[in-house]
Write a structure and sequence with these properties.
single chain, alpha/beta, seven-stranded mixed sheet, three-stranded mixed sheet, 12 strands, 33% helix
Length: 314
């Protein structure tokens, strides 16, 4: 199967991109990661080769990152379906499936698992807010929004999926157009601002379409394409995960976290923190050797402190 991966980033999220690609490569990914960016390219991306609309960074003999500068005014969270559609239209039309990963995800499993996964349908991971029954008042409000704007609800869903990862077979790429169109209708009607991913006005008022994620979940209700889904363990939102680890809000991103200070305040290094620093070495070296040694010592001591100091549950 011909597959590619993609992500979008700006500011310091390039640290996450590097660790994501390192972790995928470590587990057998060979191919191209398409990285849409806004702002400056990362300092670790050296000796770039110019291609047709992109700058290519060689990760290894069998893996590369192709950087595409994005001119959109949208928050990049809302731009995910646009970017995936753009890739199929212009940059990699021969790919049989595309995978999107947020740049604060670290991979934990063999790459062939992903290819087997997407061969069974649209690949999705459950969100930390996982059980959202078909008769949930928020989901019913999403459905009403869609139907009032000319869409037909093709199926009922009881689970809610995280938009930080999705694997889409090419024959189901129209899902991306639906996802994009729903967001743009939401903005036109004044429910969201596509420059502000988590605008407060969208969460507490009908139709409760908040960020890009609820629009994705609504888009999944508007077709009958096959889905292949895992629970919230798929992103380490609950114990026992073997696929990915996702540093979602309100967690501090691993590259920003003061590990020792956090441990002293009752928050020991997380699984995601440890995986991030494990995959910051090679083949892309994201930091100096001194910084990497320091962080590994902080993980060691922070984990030890965490055995004695625990933050009280909220």
């Amino acid at each position: 199967m011909k597959t590619a991966i993609c992500t979008v980033f700006e500011k310091d999220y390039h640290y996450g991109v590097g660790a994501l690609v390192n972790s995928l490569h470590y587990h057998g990914f060979k191919g191209i990661c398409w990285a849409g960016y806004r702002g400056k390219l990362p300092r670790w991306a050296k000796y770039l080769k110019t291609g047709a609309g992109y700058e290519e960074f060689s990760v290894s003999a069998d893996c590369a990152i192709r950087f595409i500068e994005l001119k959109t005014g949208k928050h990049l969270g809302f731009y995910k379906p646009n970017f995936m559609s753009l890739l199929w239209q212009k940059y990699c039309p021969d790919m049989e499936a595309l995978f999107y990963f947020d740049p604060d995800i670290v991979n934990k499993c063999k790459w062939n698992f992903y290819e087997n996964w997407v061969s069974r349908g649209i690949a999705l991971c459950g969100d930390s807010w996982y059980l959202v029954p078909a008769n949930h008042p928020r989901r019913l409000a999403w459905k009403e929004f869609a139907e009032s704007n000319g869409f037909i609800c093709e199926r009922q869903l009881d689970h809610h999926y995280n938009s930080g990862f999705i694997g889409v077979p090419k024959q189901y790429q129209s899902l991306l157009t639906t996802w994009q169109n729903l967001q743009e209708i939401g903005e036109k009607l004044g429910y969201i601002d596509l420059t502000d991913l988590y605008g407060s006005r969208s969460f507490n008022f009908p139709p409760y379409l908040y960020g890009d994620q609820t629009y994705l979940n609504l888009a999944l209700m508007l077709n009958n394409y096959p889905l292949s889904t895992v629970g919230p363990d798929g992103m380490d939102f609950i114990p026992g995960g073997t696929i990915m680890s996702h540093a979602t809000v309100p967690n501090v991103k691993p590259w920003r976290k003061k590990l020792m200070l956090s441990a002293l305040l009752g928050s020991a290094p997380s699984i995601t923190d440890k995986l991030y620093w494990k995959h910051s070495y090679t083949p892309i070296k994201l930091y100096s050797s001194a910084k990497l040694i320091q962080q590994n010592l902080e993980i060691l001591f922070g984990s030890a402190i965490g055995r004695f100091i625990r933050r009280a549950p909220m």
